[in-house]
Write a structure and sequence with these properties.
It is a single chain. This protein has helices at residues 3-15, 18-24, 29-43, 59-84, 102-116, 129-137, 196-200, 202-207, 223-231, 277-290, and strands at 48-50, 55-57, 90-97, 119-126, 143-147, 155-164, 166-171, 191-195, 215-220, 236-240, 252-256, 263-270. Helix 1 crosses helix 4 (59-84). The mean pLDDT is 86. 41% of the residues lie in helices and 25% in strands. The chain starts with a helix and ends with a helix. It has ten helices and twelve strands. Strands 4-3-5-12-6 form a five-stranded mixed sheet, sandwiched between helices. It has a five-stranded mixed sheet with strand order 9-8-10-7-11. A two-stranded antiparallel ribbon has the order 1-2. The protein is of the alpha/beta class.
C-alpha cells in the first residue's frame, strides 16, 4: 500500500468524483482509476460504489478513509519534523485541547515563545478527551490539555495553575437565575443540555447509580451550540465557566454548582517522546510557567 495511492483514495473520497479528484491531483483519470482498482485488489475489498455521476464509499471504504487520514497526517507531520530539526526558529506544534479557560494559559506560553521564534506555528485540534488522547497516543499530536479523568501515569504531565468551575448556563429570565449558585438537587428532573463527554464522565461521578431523575434533553460537542439551545429554552446547559458570553448584555447567565469539585487541568505528552527542537523549547517554557 503506497502513500501516493492513499492520497489518491482520500482525495477521491472527499470529492465523491474520480474525475474531479484526478484534476485536483494533476493526474489523468485513467491513471487514478487504475491505481484505485489495484488498491481494491490489494485489500481484497470494494472501496467504492460507482454510478454514472458519483461514487460513494462502502463500509470498507469508510474504514480505510479513517485509517488513511491518520496515516497521511502522521506522514506529513513526520516530514515536517525532519525539516524542522535544523531550524530552531521555526516549526509546527500540534496540540489537542478541550474548550476550557486553561487554553488561555497555554496560548500565552506559545505567544511568549513566538516573540523569540516567530516561525513557530501552533495547530490546535479541539475534541473530547477520548479523541484527543487517541491522537496523542498515535503520535498525531505533540501535546494535549486534559482534565484529571485521564490516567496520568501513562504520560508526562504538568498541572496547570487554575481549575475550571462547573455550572449551568440558562436564560436570564429563568426563575433559577435569581440564585447565586445551584446545588445538584435543584437540577433533578430539569431538562439538561450537556456534552457527550459529561455523560461519560461527570454524570456517573456526580450521581452514581442515582440517575433516575436525570433528564438529558439534548447533547452538544461545542459549548456555543449548548448555549444556543439554552437560549432557545430547551433546557439548562451544563458546562465550564467562561466558555460562552454571559455578561450583562447577554440573554444568558452562568450559575456555579456548589457541590461538585473544580476541574483540574493538565498538559500531557507521551513518555519517551522525541521532540523537535521547537517542541523542546515549548516544554521548557511550560515547565517554567507551571512549576514556579
Amino acid at each position: 500500500m503506497e502513500i501516493r495511492v492513499l492520497r489518491y483514495f482520500l482525495e477521491t473520497a472527499r470529492e465523491g468524483n474520480m474525475t474531479r479528484a484526478a484534476e485536483r491531483l494533476y493526474i489523468s483519470q485513467p491513471t487514478m482509476s487504475k491505481q484505485l482498482k489495484e488498491l481494491e485488489n490489494e485489500l481484497g475489498v470494494k472501496l467504492f460504489r460507482r454510478s454514472n455521476y458519483n461514487i460513494k464509499l462502502t463500509e470498507a471504504g469508510m474504514l480505510l478513509r479513517e485509517r488513511a487520514e491518520d496515516i497521511l497526517s502522521l506522514v506529513d507531520k513526520t516530514l515536517e519534523e525532519f525539516k524542522a530539526l535544523d531550524h530552531l526558529n521555526s516549526g509546527d506544534i500540534y496540540v489537542g485541547a478541550p474548550e476550557s479557560e486553561a487554553m488561555e494559559q497555554f496560548a500565552q506560553a506559545v505567544s511568549d515563545l513566538q516573540k523569540q521564534y516567530p516561525g513557530i506555528r501552533c495547530n490546535i485540534y479541539s475534541g473530547n478527551m477520548q479523541d484527543v488522547c487517541e491522537k496523542l497516543d498515535k503520535g498525531l499530536l505533540d501535546f494535549a490539555i486534559v482534565m484529571n479523568y485521564v490516567d496520568l501515569k501513562k504520560y508526562n504531565f504538568l498541572p496547570m495553575s487554575t481549575g475550571d468551575t462547573w455550572g449551568v448556563v440558562m436564560r436570564r429570565d429563568d426563575p433559577l437565575a435569581k440564585e447565586e449558585a445551584l446545588s445538584m438537587s435543584m437540577l433533578k428532573g430539569l431538562p439538561l443540555i450537556c456534552s457527550r463527554q459529561w455523560v461519560d464522565y461527570e454524570l456517573p461521578q456526580w450521581f452514581g447509580s442515582d440517575t433516575g431523575d436525570v433528564n438529558i434533553a439534548a447533547t452538544y460537542n461545542l459549548p456555543y451550540n449548548g448555549a444556543v439551545m439554552a437560549k432557545a429554552g430547551i433546557g439548562y446547559a451544563m458546562m465550564l465557566d467562561k466558555l460562552v458570553h454571559t455578561g450583562e448584555d447577554s440573554e444568558l447567565v452562568f450559575r456555579p454548582l456548589l457541590d461538585v469539585p473544580k476541574v483540574e487541568m493538565y498538559i500531557i505528552w507521551r513518555k519517551y517522546q522525541t521532540f523537535t527542537p521547537i517542541s523542546e523549547l515549548l516544554v521548557k517554557a511550560l515547565r517554567d510557567k507551571f512549576m514556579k
